[in-house]
């Protein structure tokens, strides 16, 4: 038993979490990515880097983010007590700023002039543009033309922050081709640029690096909860897209065998339809974007189209560490539908005056479902990964409010 929960530092030297992860990139990228790994391995131990990062977490992001006991919500459900880790209160309104600052600082320490990245709905783009403005480094974000038209406010934010937004007009003109476009731009000048991924996905060292930068969520939460309640929560949970906010919370609890850990995936219109993004629940081991993980794929191993009401969760792959944690049974992966997500969005807003991001509302939805089956002595800690301002127009239209 004890050995099962003694987690060795992960990943291994080759960037693998069990059989997942690794780095399978075209030869021209191999050298550039290997350079990032070497630089990060030395910088992550550098006291000056760690001090600068933690100073910015405190004085810029506003960390530590509080934990809030959602009493009216818990009472309304009538089961376990639900607590919220308030990542929505961070500067820019979500957890992404934690790794964006880490990546921008890394670029600075590596002596790079520019950060290059892609974005889907624009959340990673805005977080990177913010961090680059803060650190004083150029930022170039590749975004599909269709997404640019859909997400105008985020495009405006990036421009105001001094970031160059590159429209991607080939292929699907969405995230999938924005990834290729950003990779190409990075390869044109890896000497002066750093490629910055927006979740715990992609080739090694990104899943490790982004996890390290998000780990602060769980470190704080574990101490805060213990101080509030004199014990650890019975359950911790978070929504899983690529899995960065989830692994950020989970890491601090992996060696606490009494703490149940749950990742919540988007079940979209239902697991029995083809319109979902429940990668761990219905996918199979495979490869995507240069690494191995669970993938929603067709017979040929091509990634399937995915759907979620929360654009930050619709990805057909998932972080390699999550894939590993599922296989060894340390983390349980569940799902919530679009409808359950909308219900949780409205319930949390009206019971607590907290409007969650649609992504985060998936975790709240599953917590509400689970709480009913537990007793009032038990507790669930939910990572509220972001605030819902960005989703208001969509929800109002959808529900006809
Ligand atoms: C991007 C995003 C997510 C999903 O990303 P993960 O890497 O799975 O955490 C979740 N919540 C919010 C608010 C986001 O912006």
TrEMBL record:
Recorded GO CC terms: cytoplasm
SUPFAM superfamilies: Tryptophan synthase beta subunit-like PLP-dependent enzymes (SSF53686)
Record's keyword annotation contains Lyase: yes
Keyword tRNA processing carried by entry: no
Limits of the Tryptophan synthase beta chain-like PALP domain: 62-386
Recorded superkingdom: Bacteria
Keyword annotations of the record: Amino-acid biosynthesis, Aromatic amino acid biosynthesis, Lyase, Pyridoxal phosphate, Tryptophan biosynthesis
One protein family per Pfam: PALP
Modified residues (N6-(pyridoxal phosphate)lysine): 96
EC supergroup of this enzyme: lyase
Catalytic activity reported: (1S,2R)-1-C-(indol-3-yl)glycerol 3-phosphate + L-serine = D-glyceraldehyde 3-phosphate + L-tryptophan + H2O
Functional summary from the UniProt entry: The beta subunit is responsible for the synthesis of L-tryptophan from indole and L-serine.
Assigned protein family: Belongs to the TrpB family.
Subunit structure: Tetramer of two alpha and two beta chains.
Protein name: Tryptophan synthase beta chain
Organism whose genome encodes this protein: Endozoicomonas elysicola
Encoding gene, per UniProt annotation: trpB
């Amino acid at each position: 038993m004890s050995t099962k929960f003694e987690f060795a530092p992960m990943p291994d030297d080759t960037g693998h979490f069990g059989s997942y992860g690794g780095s399978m990139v075209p030869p021209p990228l191999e050298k550039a990515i290997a350079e990032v790994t070497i630089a990060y391995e030395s910088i992550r131990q550098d006291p000056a880097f760690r001090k600068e990062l933690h100073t910015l977490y405190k004085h810029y992001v506003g960390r530590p983010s509080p934990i809030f006991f959602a009493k009216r919500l818990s009472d309304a459900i009538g089961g376990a007590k639900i607590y919220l880790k308030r990542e929505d209160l961070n500067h820019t309104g979500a957890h992404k700023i934690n790794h964006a600052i880490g990546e921008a600082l890394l670029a600075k320490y590596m002596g790079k002039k520019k950060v290059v990245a892609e974005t889907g709905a624009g959340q990673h783009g805005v977080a990177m543009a913010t961090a680059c403005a803060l650190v004083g480094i150029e930022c170039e974000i590749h975004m599909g033309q269709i997404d640019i038209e859909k997400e105008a406010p985020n495009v405006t934010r990036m421009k105001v922050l001094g970031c160059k937004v590159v429209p991607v007009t080939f292929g699907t003109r969405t995230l999938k081709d924005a990834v290729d476009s950003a990779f190409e731009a990075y390869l044109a000048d890896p000497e002066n640029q750093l490629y910055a991924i927006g979740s715990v996905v992609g080739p090694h060292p990104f899943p490790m690096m982004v996890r390290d930068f998000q780990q602060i969520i769980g470190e704080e939460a574990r101490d805060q909860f213990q101080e509030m309640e004199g014990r650890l929560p019975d359950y911790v949970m978070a929504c899983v897209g690529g899995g960065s906010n989830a692994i950020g919370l989970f890491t601090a609890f992996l060696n606490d065998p009494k703490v149940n850990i749950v990742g919540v995936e988007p079940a979209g219109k239902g697991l029995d339809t083809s319109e979902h993004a429940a990668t761990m629940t219905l996918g199979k081991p495979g490869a995507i974007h240069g690494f191995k993980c669970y993938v929603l794929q067709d017979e040929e191993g091509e990634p399937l189209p995915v759907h979620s009401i929360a654009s930050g969760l619709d990805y057909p792959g998932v972080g390699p560490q999550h894939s590993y944690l599922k296989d060894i049974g340390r983390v349980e992966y569940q799902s919530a539908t679009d409808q359950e997500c909308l219900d949780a969005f409205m319930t949390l807003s009206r019971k607590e005056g907290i409007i969650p991001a649609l992504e985060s509302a998936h975790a709240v939805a599953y917590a509400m479902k689970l709480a009913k089956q537990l007793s009032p002595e038990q507790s669930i800690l939910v990572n509220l990964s972001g605030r819902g301002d960005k989703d208001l127009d969509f929800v109002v239209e959808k529900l006809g409010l």
